[in-house]
Design a protein that fits this description.
The structure holds 2 protein chains of 2 kinds. Chain A contains 5 helices and 7 strands. By secondary structure, chain A is α+β, with helices and mostly antiparallel strands. Chain A folds into 2 domains: 93 residues, SH3 Domains (SH3 type barrels); 52 residues. In chain A, strand 5 and strand 6 form a beta hairpin. About 16% of the residues of chain A have low confidence. Chain B has one domain. Helices cover 65% and strands 5% of the residues of chain B. In chain B, helix 1 crosses helix 12, helix 4 crosses helix 6 and helix 6 packs across helix 10. Classes of the chains: A alpha+beta, B mainly alpha. Chains A and B meet through helix 1, helix 2, helix 3, helix 4 and helix 5 of A and helix 1, helix 2, helix 3, helix 4 and strand 1 of B.
């Protein structure tokens, strides 16, 4: 029992210390299209405000992997995995590929193999491989955001640690 | 007790390392982006075509990246025996991979993870978010921490646009980017030929030369950081490489397009002890 508990405790200590380089007083940036500013450092806490992509926020406190931040108007908590140290660059093309502006992740729309690739595959004699990639797309796209979040919760990963 | 002290020391060192290392290479990248931008500017001047869209660090926009990535993915699958069409295996790899991609530096990408039907031990990625590991590697991986270490390395290649930088540096840049940006149109034969040459530049690097060692170490560092952020063991990739080392033999090729295992393990250990 002791053998299992001690590593677990130190893993917890490690998690608590892993603020991954962010420090109080620094500015960080949101990297999703929408990031909730939470009332408490918990994934299901009440949302105080929703910040758009690449919003600069000032870190005032850190608790483990959670940062208490302010955008100048509102303050609250954001999981450090949802922050970037450098301001992300928005690709103009992204807007045209968004499935839903309200999506909390900015995942590019499910994209079947494009026409250029189909022509390329024809020219190179890669029809079987093209069919395999289409199969992979169909399998992979079954795993949407809700499934991923469920996996994170179940396995205590990401903001659910 | 000795074990206790060792475990404590390990976690303490790992935690100190993680404090210090985050963002170092991002800063390095931002320092080099000026050089990259000047290269892109030079390319633009050479072609004298200011109307073409040149975007981002690599000069290739998202639509172009997705198209090129699709084609590179098809080439990878063809070269390595097709896909393992096993739904359970594919689901596992995608769940672990997408849990990492959810917190990566480019969460807008729709990552897809597959297993190649090849006994060799290797992993690949294609621009836009395709990640592949071979069946040979999948069978040697012992747990999700190791799998996450491998996938996080490949995700970093994508988020840092390592493959696209090969095209951006090459003479076929204009043809590739121009054609790929019109992904919905029927390509002219000469355009398709130029496009094939551009895609060929990437696949030649992926299949034959591999990225340069610094790029691979960059991906190791980024993957280490990503896995730790999401809560997988920060040493998952190191564990995996140690396992692979035990299977090295004259007739077994382990990560042939990557730097030697010992060098990578040494670097990964240094990330934990020195914070990179």
């Amino acid at each position: 029992m002791k053998r299992k508990v001690i590593p677990f405790l130190f893993a917890c200590v490690l998690c608590a210390m892993l603020s991954l380089g962010f420090e109080s007083g620094e500015t960080a940036f949101t990297k999703r299209y929408q990031t909730d500013l939470l009332k408490d450092p918990q994934p299901l806490a009440e949302s105080v405000a929703t910040l758009p992509f690449a919003t600069g926020v000032k870190i005032s406190d850190l608790q483990g992997k959670w940062a208490n931040v302010s955008d100048g108007t509102n303050s609250g908590w954001i999981y450090v995995g949802n922050l970037a140290e450098e301001k992300p660059v928005e690709d103009n093309s992204i807007a045209g590929l968004q499935t839903s502006a309200s999506a909390t992740t900015a995942s590019v729309a499910a994209r079947p193999l494009d026409n250029v690739t189909s022509q390329y595959a024809d020219q190179e004699g890669l029809g079987a491989a093209e069919a395999d990639v289409k199969w992979l797309e169909s399998q992979s796209d079954k795993i949407g955001k809700d499934t991923v979040v469920g996996f994170l919760k179940k396995n205590k990963k990401g903001e659910f640690q | 007790m000795k074990k206790f002290i060792f475990i404590f020391a390990f976690f303490l060192i790992a935690a100190i390392g993680a404090f210090a290392q985050f963002g170092f290479l991002d800063k390095l990248n931002s320092n080099t982006s000026g050089d990259q931008d000047s290269k892109i500017s030079s390319i633009k001047n050479i072609f004298g075509n200011a109307g073409k869209v040149l975007k981002g660090v690599s000069g290739i926009g998202l639509q172009e990246e997705l198209t090129i990535g699709n084609s590179v993915a098809v080439q990878i699958v063809s070269k390595y025996g097709g896909l393992v069409r096993d739904e359970a295996i594919t689901k596992r790899v995608n769940l672990v991979g997408k849990s990492l991609a959810y917190y990566c530096d480019r969460p807008e990408l729709n990552f897809r993870f597959g297993v190649l039907n090849s006994p060799t031990v290797n992993a690949f990625s294609a621009p836009g978010g395709y990640v592949f590991i071979t069946r040979g590697l999948y069978e040697l991986i012992q747990n999700n921490d190791q799998l996450a270490g491998v996938l996080a390395h490949e995700i970093t290649h994508v988020t840092r646009k390592h493959a696209l930088k090969i095209i951006a540096r090459g003479q076929f840049f204009e043809g590739v980017a121009g054609l790929a940006s019109d992904a919905g149109t029927i390509a002219r034969k000469q355009d398709l030929t130029r496009y094939s040459q551009g895609v060929g530049q990437i696949t030649t690097t992926l299949f034959e030369k591999g990225f340069d060692p610094q790029t691979e170490f960059d991906a190791d560092e980024g993957g280490f950081k990503l896995a730790a952020t999401v809560g997988y063991a920060p040493d998952g990739l190191e564990q995996c490489l140690e396992t692979l080392k035990q299977h090295e033999a004259p007739n077994v090729t382990i990560f042939p397009t990557h730097p030697p295992l010992d060098k990578r393990i040494g670097k990964l250990q240094s990330y934990q002890t020195s914070g990179i």
